[in-house]
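FAQ: What does a multi-protein file look like?

Like this. Sequence, then tokens, then the next protein.
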Amino acid sequence: MPDDLARVRRWLDAGGTVHTLVRSDDTVTLALCSCDTGAEMERLTSSDAGLLARLDELAD
């Protein structure tokens, strides 16, 4: 299983932004956006418990 929390942290460390699109108790869909224009580059849907636990401090 991929470590989606680490993936989001790498994205943020590189200067990108993360926006929550959809969230339930056990799944989240995030928009991974570029650092320059803020354009959505990818979407990530995850049920990674570590990501869900830290989501409030990582995404707006």
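And here is the next protein:
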Amino acid sequence: MAMTEGRRLALERLRRAEEAVNDLRDELGRAGLVLPSLRIDPVSAAGNEPSPLIDLGRCNVETARRLAAVLRHRKQT
């Protein structure tokens, strides 16, 4: 069975979202940060024409402060 153009585009959007999650997880890890709930939002990825969103999830106060410090430092450089 041949893949329709719409299905091919949907799979490409999901693949790009997965890449974005992996890239973000890697870069956060390099900065010593972990967002344990980081993932593709399953509701936005569902259906025939998904528009996946990245769910950054929830984190504890210490992780939020460390993330803010990393962003602050990057802004200054």
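Q: Is there any per-entry metadata?
A: Some entries carry free-text notes. For the entry above: The chain has a mean pLDDT of 91.
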